[in-house]
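Deviation from plan, reported transparently: adenosine monophosphate complex.
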Amino acid sequence: MDLKSSIRTIPNFPKEGIMFRDITSLIETPLAFAYCIDQMREKFESKGVTKIVGIESRGFIFGAALAKDMGLPFVLIRKKGKLPGETVGVDYTLEYGTDTVEIHTNSLTSSDNVLVIDDLIATGGTVLASCQLVEKVGAKVLACAFVINLPDLKGMEKISNYNPFCLVEFEGE
Ligand code: AMP
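Because the crystal trials were delayed, the predicted structure below was used instead.
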């Protein structure tokens, strides 16, 4: 499966100089979408994962499909103010300013071994904050998985303690 060719690149979105890797073309291709989920399931099915955590918003697409396939609970990490129940948050730094990721206080317990899912890792800031959030509520991060890694931005190095895994890379493109 040539997964890479199912991912569309849109230059200069959302701003000048960004090569936006668009997974809408991937999820509109059933074989490519199924391939992603199959690869992730095969990688993690015997690793003792107890819950899948998806990062807003494209992490929900892959995380939910994987959780359904593996028969595991699916837990949301969302941007500040979106979750209706009692939440815990972690702040993180963006290029300009800060942002906050939140999780429901009772979604994870100290006996959970979590697999964190997002569509893409760039600088790794979002997923690092998400892993810290999982730990803040007492659970363990077993691994993190992405469809796409941008190695030039060294995000996988930033989260090397959390067993990062990806399916495709776009380097210097
Ligand atoms: P970061 O925190 O820098 O690792 O950014 C990761 C988040 O931003 C992911 O949720 C991605 O969906 C999104 N993102 C960052 N860079 C890109 C890109 N070049 N193309 C598509 N999405 C991106």
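The longest helix spans residues 30-44. We consider this an acceptable substitute for the interim report.
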